[in-house]
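Example 416.
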Amino acid sequence: MENVTLYQLAKEEYAKAGVDTEAALAQLKDIKISIHCWQGDDVTGFDQKGPLSGGIQATGNYFGKARTPEELMADIDMALSLLVGEHKINLHASYAIFEDGWVDRDELQPKHFKKWVDFAKARKLGLDFNPTLFSHEKANDGSTLTSTDENVRKFWIRHCQACIRIAEYFAEETGQPSLMNIWIPDGFKDIPADRLGPRKRFKESLDEILSIDYDKNKVPITLESKVFGIGLESYTAGSAEFCLNYVNYKGITPLMDNGHYHPTEFVSDKISSMLLFHDKLALHITRPVRWDSDHVVLFDDETREIAKEIVAAQALNRVFLATDFFDAGINRVGAWVTGLRNVQKALLYALLMPHQQLKELQDQGRFGELMALHEELKTMPFGAVWNHFLESAGVKSMNWYDEIGRYEEEVQKKRR
Ligand code: RNT
Ligand code: ZN
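Predicted structure in complex with zinc ion:
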């Protein structure tokens, strides 16, 4: 044999199983993932100096965290250099860049994100957006859009409306829709006396936010549910039932974060039900571990199963994919690359499955064969196809962490 690459051998093996690796690789290249900006600085942002609040926590103190917009952008560039594909950057309102004076969140304007737009356009990236309803003095008592204080509630309504305008600006500037996701941390540590009141106020707040005119094609608005937060263990206003009912009632898009459910529930099992009743579905891909909902994504069973559900349902054009994790205990750029690569790996794994054949086995009740085939697929030469995906785009497949080491020495160590 002369010059037969591992990839060529793998391609033949997959062909025998009825799978076209070239088609799978071409599809994978076109899948956009919305890369969360907040892995780079432990969800700190640039608009305030207080601690991270809202029932989420980034633990660890690995050195080299990005402290300024310039540092965060440089780190995103570093991560992108180790990734393949044209993606989107997912920003939070707290990442506003104030060039001519600070304003509070209810007064944010497109100009406060101009530098991000320039950054995105220069790299052909899309931009998604999130109002930031945490890490702020008006969120410190655990209530924002559910607040009993009308001034506080109105403040956050104005904030979310300002964010719709900013997302519209992103869409216009980048020529791609800008998804805007609303998540609120509001809840209680202990047993509430009144569960209805906060949810009623949340509903009224959302109604008011969505009452402004905006272009729904440019700005798909999503609502993210959550079952608990740290210090908010007994009740969250934005529960799964609240959010699902709300998106149905208003015709907006549901967002499921797979760290936001009871530990024996799986988002992979929820996707098909959502696709039957919604035109679009948005996901935050993460990895829950015990009380934390935001560990770095691995190439694990559930990530593969989520990807499999989307691919098998031929719904890649209906599901908005975004990452959402934050680990401050390891190199933050390395964390980004690991998590993003694993989402792509899971997608490739799903694209390399003979779905038609698998479905037929199920429909014909041949469950033993189905199990056997599922298991055989696990030891197909998947790694060779994955490495080929990276290498043919000029990106290292093995030993890529050496590049992180170099960046750490040359750039991040100097941030001490
Ligand atoms: C929190 C939610 C939310 C946040 C980001 C920072 O539990 O998952 O999506 O992680 O908005
Ligand atoms: Zn999330």
